[in-house]
Amino acid sequence: MSRLVMKFGGTSVGDVDRIRRVARIVAAERKPGRGLAVVVSAMSGETDKLVKLARDAGGALADQGAQFDDEYDVVVSTGEQVTTGLLALALRAQGIPARSWQNWQVPIVSDAAHAKARVDSIDEAKLGAAIDSGEVAVLPGFQGVTAGQRITTLGRGGSDTSAVAVAAALGAERCDIYTDVDGVYTTDPRIVAKARRLEKISYEEMLEMASLGAKVLQTRSVELAMAQRVPVRVLSSFVEPGVDNPGTLVCGEEEIVEKQIVSGVAYSRDEAKVSLLGIADSPGVAAQIFGRLADANINVDMIVQSVARTEGRQNIVFTCPDRDAPRAKDALLALGEAIQLEDIAIRRDVAKVSVIGIGMRSQVGVARTMFSALAGKGINIEAISTSEIKISVLIDAQYTELAVRALHSAYGLDAA
Ligand code: ASP
Ligand code: MG
Q1: Ligand 1: which of 7, 8, 38, 41 to mutate, most ligand atoms within 8 Å of CB?
Q2: Rounded to the nearest 5°, which phi and psi values hold at 325?
Q3: Is 183 in the pocket of ligand 1 (CB under 6 A)?
Q4: Is 163 close to ligand 1, i.e. is its CB under 6 Å away?
Q5: Is the CB of 142 inside a 6 Å radius of any atom of ligand 1?
Q6: Nearest to 114 by CA among 142, 154, 166
Q7: C-alpha 384 to ligand 2 mean position (Å)
Q8: Fewer Cβ in 10 A, N or C end of the chain?
Q9: How far apart are CA 102 and CA 278, in angstroms?
Q10: How many angstroms separate the CA atoms of 247 and 394, rounded?
Q11: Which structural domains are found in the chain, ordered by start?
Q12: What is the pTM of this model?
C-alpha cells in the first residue's frame, strides 16, 4: 500500500469550476494500492474576509503586539472547512468515494499558540485506514485542535505545513503541492523572462529561497519537510490531468546529481537599513543593541560593524523588515545614552538580492562573479552577508530588477 498527499491552494480552489477540476486531478491519481489524502486551503480571498470579520467583531490584532483570542481561530479556520465539503461533494459527483475530515476528527493536535500554532501530533490510525480502503480523505489545511479541544490555526499560508505534516504522519511517498505556478523558478519570471523551472531543488536551497521572499511554499512547511524527509513536489493545478506537468521536486541534496553552483536568484524589497553612527566601541554594546531589538520583536538580518573615524567609536549597520524600521529607531533612541549614540540614519529604499546554491560550498570565485556582475552594471553594494549556500547584498531598491537580471545571466541561469 502506498500513500500520497495532495494539497491545493486558495486560487486552485477559487471557485466551483476549479474545485471540479481539482476533483478530476485527484481522480487521475487514484489507483489500486494507493491511498489518497487531499489537503485544501480556503477559497482565495476567504481567509482575508474572515480575518476582517474577526477584527471588526473585536478580535485582538497580533500586529499590535496583542495575544490572539482563541475565538479568532474559530472564525478564520472556517474557510478551509467549506472547501473540504465542496471538494468531497465534487469527488462524489464523479463517482469517487470521499469524505471530509475536520482536524478535530483526526485529530491533528497543535499547541495553543492561537493564530500561529504548531502541530504536535497527528493520530493517523483512522485516517490511514480510511484512505487505504480506497476512500479519498479531504482535510482542511491551516487548522489544528489543542489537547483541550480548542480550534487553532497555523499562521497565514499554513496549509502547506498542514499538508507536509499529514504526509509525514501517513508515511506518504510524497506531498504534491498544487498551486498557481508550475514549479519553482531560478528567479521571479515576472522580472526575468528567461527564468527557468527547476526540475529539482534541495530543501536547504528552497528554505533560503522561501525566506528570501520567493513565496511558493510557506517557510515552515519546508523546514518540516526537511526534518521529516518528505519529498515535496510543487506543480500547477491549472492543467487538466494527462497534460505534462512535472513541477519541481524539493528533496534531499543526495538526490540531486548535478549540483548547481547557483540554483536561484532571490530578492526582497521589504528591507530597511539602519545605521548607528559613532557609538561606543566597548564590550556589551552590541549585546545591548540587539537585545533591545529582540525585546521589540524586530527580526534583524544583515549586520555590519566597522570602526568610526573617531577613536573609541564604531558604526553598526543592520537591516530589518521595512515596516519595523520606525520601531527599531524608537527602541534604539531609547538606548541613546547607554551606547553613546551620535547619530542614527534609516534608509528604507533598499533591497536585498541573493544568490543561492548548494554547489557554492565546494566552489571558489562565486562571490567574485556576483560582485563583478553588479559592478558591471554600476550598482553599489551597501552591505554583504553570506551563509554556506547563499550570498546576499544590499543595494539601492531602484536597481533590484537590473541586479537580478545581471546575476541570472552571470551564473548561466538564462534559458536558451
Ligand atoms: N487560508 C489560509 C491563508 O490564506 C491558509 C492557506 O491558504 O495556506 O493564509
Ligand atoms: Mg499558499
Answers
A1: 41
A2: -55, -45
A3: no
A4: no
A5: yes
A6: 154
A7: 30
A8: C
A9: 57
A10: 31
A11: 2-180 (3.40.1160.10), 265-410 (3.30.2130.10)
A12: 0.90
Q: pLDDT in tens for each of the 416 residues of the chain?
A: 899 999 999 999 999 999 999 999 999 999 999 999 999 999 999 999 999 999 888 865 555 555 678 899 999 999 999 999 999 999 999 999 999 999 999 999 999 999 999 999 999 999 999 999 999 999 999 999 999 999 999 999 999 999 999 999 999 999 999 998 999 999 999 999 999 999 999 999 999 987 665 678 999 999 999 999 999 999 999 999 999 999 999 999 999 988 889 999 999 999 999 999 999 999 999 999 999 999 999 999 999 999 888 888 999 999 999 999 999 999 999 887 888 989 999 999 999 999 999 999 988 899 999 999 999 999 999 999 999 999 999 999 999 999 999 999 999 999 88
